[in-house]
Amino acid sequence: METKTIDTDVLIIGGSSAGLWAAIRARDFSPRVTLVDKGIVASAGVSTFIHVVGAPLAEEDVLPALREIVERSTYLTEQTRMEVLLREMGDRFRDMEKWGVPFERDSSGKIITAKRMGQKVTSCVFINGRPMMQTLREQALKRGVQFVERVIATDLLTSDGLQPTKGQVVGAVGFHTITGQPYRFRAKAVIIASGLVSGKLHIGYTDGVTGDGQAMAFRAGAELQSMEMITNPAFPLWERKFCTGGQGEYMNAGARVVNKSGEDIIPKYGPDKAKPFLTRIQLCQAAAKEIIDGRGPVYFDMRHLTDGDMEIMRHVLPSAMKAFDEQGIDLQKQRIETTPIVPYVCGGGEGGIRVNLQSASTIPGLYAAGCASFTSGNHSYIIGIAQSFGFVAGYRGGEAAGKRAAAAGEAEIRAEQADGFIKEALAPLKRKSGPRPDKIYLSLNKVFIPYPFSFFKHETRIKTSLAEIARVQKEELPRVSARDVHELVKANEARNYATLLELLFRCALERKDSRIGHYREEYPYRDDVDWLKWSIIRQERDGLALRFEPVPVEQYPVKLEKRARIDPPVKLS
């Protein structure tokens, strides 16, 4: 089948909210802006399912909000970038309000704001993700952005034809997810906004976002940051039957999390007994420990909530509440069994492609925004912030990429590199036998999803995971077969998933403390004396290069008063 070639100034890979913001802003500087997505923009992806975004901050609240975020991220926040994002959130919010994005309002017409999960400064506003995304889509099309939908990008093209490159990124290749037609994109600048990383567990709405952008950037030679921190547990599975989100809203309404004996586990593990509180990640770890120790199952108990509480949740979480209704579950009459699990990684800017204030990666011509990038620290502790930061980072990346493209000459791609990547991407279709993509995901998830590999790591188990990942990469991926184009997509996604899991475990093996979603059984404490550092990993010609870079906290607005080793609320032993 003939390869279709598209020439553009700015190429955006991924139709997330960050990707659409990048496209909208890039169009202000470059006449040719193309957004490629393997689904239908505004009808697929995680952004269509969000229900809250971070609220704009008053000037006097910026530094207090920065402190709240920094403290909850255990001081791993890149504060210079975070402060810029906090100051610009309101601009993007006001743009969306002007375009008619339907934020939730009270009876007087005022936009509703609320604090969630113990937040004292940062607030969120309620929003339906689907109309928000549809509005952003309309704004992009109105400005002349070209959409190329149902096309998966598989590899980045470089000026020297090498990976890792010593040159710059000049485009990408991919194929149509229905017809299989190959695509080649030539671009002066490329922005990756492909979202988070799913293990295809069919939990929630994340199966289509599989870390393609992060893996492509890594193979091209971009640095990735804090990959050991991307383990992002949640409570997506209910009654072992169905999946839905909303845990934060249940907790905010007053849900109790209890073990099989009815014991509330939050006061049990919360470090402040007077005001017991656990972050979502800590609560997931606590629930997992209760299950490991034989005190499971774990339940959300909302039987004490009022009709008014339930009405608010029905308004804020219509899809989640519909799921309970369809299962015949009355939250005011029965406890609901829940299962903490890692449904996805890179869910809130905890780790990903390393970028600067302009969303530029460490490779010239390559930018990244949203959950594909290290947004500036862990946002999973702050409800709605990751979404708002995606807007700001996308806008900034679009501006920088658009200006670069406007000043650059036509990009030159190496035909042999493009043809080689296309041949590799399509190869599974030609294999008559070999493991199918589902088998690869199953093999990888067996050494990632169970609690001893995801929630509570140990050197021995990390090495077990790395050995299995290496086996899959050596024995299964080179032979993976696809019966049709649908499986071909999954085969390419499986390759990316294996790459990112390897990076996660490589960094986790070398980090010898526990913080946020990274827990080492041998080093259960948070070590601010020796390990207040970011991991930086990149592909080099002779293998992986990993280093740790100290967080320059003394140079930041929010300083760490005393470096110490701090015990976590949840200890495995």
Relevant terms:
15 helices, Flavocytochrome C3, Chain A, domain 1, 5-stranded parallel sheet, single chain, Methane Monooxygenase Hydroxylase, Chain G, domain 1, alpha+beta
General description of the model:
53% of the residues are buried. Helix 2 packs across helix 3 and helix 9 packs across helix 10. The strands form 7 sheets. The protein has a 5-stranded parallel sheet, with helices on both faces. Strands 15-14-18-17-16 form a 5-stranded antiparallel sheet. Among the domains are: 239-341, Alpha-Beta Complex (Flavocytochrome C3, Chain A, domain 1), CATH 3.90.700; 428-566, Methane Monooxygenase Hydroxylase, Chain G, domain 1. It is of the alpha+beta class and 573 residues long. It starts with a strand and ends in a 7-residue tail after the last strand. Strand 23 and strand 24 (543-550) form a beta hairpin. The protein is built from 15 helices and 25 strands. It has helices at residues 17-26, 62-72, 79-99, 129-142, 212-220, 247-253, 265-269, 280-292, 307-316, 318-326, 385-407, 415-426, 437-446, 459-476, 485-510, and strands at 4-7, 10-13, 33-37, 52-54, 113-114, 124-126, 146-149, 151-158, 169-176, 182-186, 189-192, 197-198, 224-225, 234-238, 242-243, 256-258, 298-301, 336-341, 344-345, 352-353, 366-368, 526-527, 533-540, 543-550, 565-566. Helix content is 35%, strand content 18%. The chain is globular, with a radius of gyration of 23 Å.
